[in-house]
Amino acid sequence: MIDLHCHILPEVDDGSVSNEMSIEMAKRAVSEGITAIVATPHHQNGRYLNEKEAILHGVEKLNSLLLHEGVPLTILPGQENRIYGEILDDYHQDKILTLNNTGKYLFIEFPSSQVPRYAERLLFDIQSQGIIPIIVHPERNSRLLEDPDLLYNFINKGALAQVTASSLVGHFGKKIKKFSHQLIDANLVHFVSSDAHNLQHRSFHMQAAIDVIESEHGRDYYYMFLENAQCVVDGTQCYKESPEKIMRKKFLGIF
Ligand code: FE
Q1: Cα–Cα distance between 173 and 167 in angstroms, integer?
Q2: CA of 111 to the centre of ligand 1 (A)
Q3: Distance, CA of 190 to chain centre
């Protein structure tokens, strides 16, 4: 199993704070059946800046450490980019890193309670460069929770989305859990990843999430999520079904 979203690189953001902690996280990942992790440090989120070159270097260092410790896990380079207007300029200046550096898939994070007005245009511009934007954890964005049609619109126009494993099993509360499953049912998410930051409060929960996906949504979704993660790492085309709108229950059953 591949985890596309994880803050396992030490001392670069609010994830792992040391080499020792990164090794412990790696061991836990292996115990859950994870064989490769895309390290995705925060970038441009108002607190952290992690540019491409530094991430590539950090990934190399962590891989040799894991090899030395005998932990059978491969770390691949990635970046969690908060959406900002100059992202494509920075991409062309080699500051922005696509997932596994294939030039195909780019993580985009919205601020937690809003979706900027320019998002639609920017997602379009990213695609016109041959890069597919992947919206990270839409289930935890309060604006999208209020108005899921916004997400439907982005997905309908070619973006993909990643749901967080711990959201699916309820660690972010009932509302987010329910919304996460609705997103799967409406074909509005294409990946499940851990977004693990540590082993205490923000751990992997990938095995639990995959089990829930299989039992609640069926084997097809289970396989689709596993294979899509591989497609991203390989830079090949992902599987997707036609997105649907999430039906909201209206007052007194009037539709
Ligand atoms: Fe993250």
Answers
A1: 8
A2: 12
A3: 10
Ligand 1 geometric centre to CA of 24 (Å):
18
Rounded to 5°, the CA angle 11-15-19 comes to 45
φ/ψ (deg, to 5) at 143: -70, -40
Residue 59 Cα to ligand 1 midpoint, Å, equals 16
Asked if residue 150 has pLDDT above 80, the reply is: yes
Average pLDDT, the chain: 96
Q: 80 C-alpha to center of ligand 1: Å?
A: 6
CA of 190 from ligand 1 middle (Å) equals 16
DSSP letter assigned to residue 100: G
Question: From CA 189, how far away is CA 163, in angstroms rounded?
Answer: 6
Give distance in angstroms: CA of 195 to centre of ligand 1.
5
11-65 tens-digit pLDDT: 999 999 999 999 999 999 999 999 999 999 999 999 999 999 999 999 999 999 9
Q: How far apart are CA 4 and CA 77, in angstroms?
A: 10
